[in-house]
Amino acid sequence: MNDYRILIVDDEPRQCVVIKAALEPEGYAVGTANSGTAAINALSTHAYDLVLTDLKMAGADGLQVLEFAKQHHPRCAVILMTAFATAQTAVEAMKRGAYDYIIKPFELDELKVKIRHLVERKNLVVEKESLAQENKSLRQELKQRYSIENMVGQGGAMQEVYKLVHKVAPSDATVLIRGESGTGKELVAQAIHYLSPRADKPFVAINCAALPETLLESELFGYEKGAFTGADKRKPGLFETAGEGTIFLDEIGEISPAIQVKLLRALQQRQIIHLGGIESIAIRSRTIAATNRDLEAGLKEGRIREDFYYRINVFPITLPSLRRRKEDLPELILHFLKRAGRDQNAITPEAIEKLQQYPWPGNVRELENVIERSLIMAGEQPITPMDLPLHIQGLQRLPTQFDIPEEGINLEDMEKRLIHRAIERAGGNKSRAAKLLGITRRKLYSMLERLG
After folding, report:
1. Are the C-beta atoms of 430 and 423 separated by less than 8 Å?
2. What does residue 226 show for φ and ψ, rounded to 5 degrees?
3. Checking phi first, is residue 192 left (phi over 0); if not, alpha (psi -120 to 50) or beta?
4. Strand-strand pairing, 175-178 and 315-318
5. Domains in the chain, ordered, with CATH?
6. Omega before 13 cis (within 30°)?
7. Spatial separation of the C-alpha atoms in residues 190 and 147, rounded to whole Å
8. Which of 58, 84, 222, 334 has its CA 20 to 30 A from that of 306?
9. What tens digit of pLDDT does each residue of 291-311 get?
10. Pick from 53, 54, 62, 49: nearest CA to 122
């Protein structure tokens, strides 16, 4: 606790000595001054957490010490010691910023309690400020991470997406992000949020397809105690949790017409009702939705309500599939390599060519997974075509079932042929041949030795 610095000010030196002797064993760093002027000089060159000063002193008195301390060290607490305390004195001291006062003579234990409370208060303030700074840094990091500048892709299709994101972000309009699975819909939703005036407020996401209807309803709108079995206390929904931030409803095309009705009310009237509740609760969050489904087909089939469709389709943004933005593939590959701590030399031109020939049904998410897997397969070496998954290499996996002819087969001969075919395919590289066969290099050598 010796980082808590205390200055004792009293024109009676013996009083300073007694108080210092009582406080130092508590772990405080204690200094003394035998006049108000000496205290002001000390405060001019040193910072203190607490000034414990006598009120009546020749020259500069306790109130002057208080005024100087608060002016130059706003966080410094001041406790006044006085044998002449009156209500007026106390009020005047508090008006000028004193933390407290104590009447002479006083018990040292009483003083220790007051100081202990001050230390606890300081620790709480420091912890609160640290958390606030941590939250600020985290929000800034998130803002930078999901800024539009950090989104990868300079092709025409993505430039159109960026333009729409910049236009809609400052508004409160409901946004519908459309695109195949893996195209980065949530990333775009986060970019809109962090470019908006709501950037410092929460971003709350929910996958509507991941929950059954009753659970989705309770998560979105909240519930009252006793609303259903297990509802032992009141719980706010995500619309409330989002506050003045953004709620992101992923896979909006999967929700039932019954939930669509309740969502429609929330979006139109800006109000929700808890499950088991009767009171309307105002909501202030912005809504961004996303889907990979054909909502127009859902309209025709009756799965999507017409009023709901037009309410969420205020500002649509359609994300292109990766096969429609092949010009961005090299940049995306480099992006994922850098994320793994590697550079452009970690993949060969032949491997990039193979990746460009692939249609990418899983879009950017599939590319990310392929790069991660291929780096593991390649080890410290650059990724080659043989490190890519077989379906991207253009190889077909061997059938898992085949008929054994009546005359039987020679298992050793088949193993030998498969091994030699893999070595040939790997250009004589045994490690790569082992990878093609799904076995270790040691196992390959063992089999070669056994089979001759």
Report:
1. yes
2. 85, 5
3. alpha
4. parallel
5. 5-122 (3.40.50.2300), 146-320 (3.40.50.300), 323-393 (1.10.8.60), 411-451 (1.10.10)
6. no
7. 8
8. 222
9. 999 999 999 999 999 999 999
10. 49
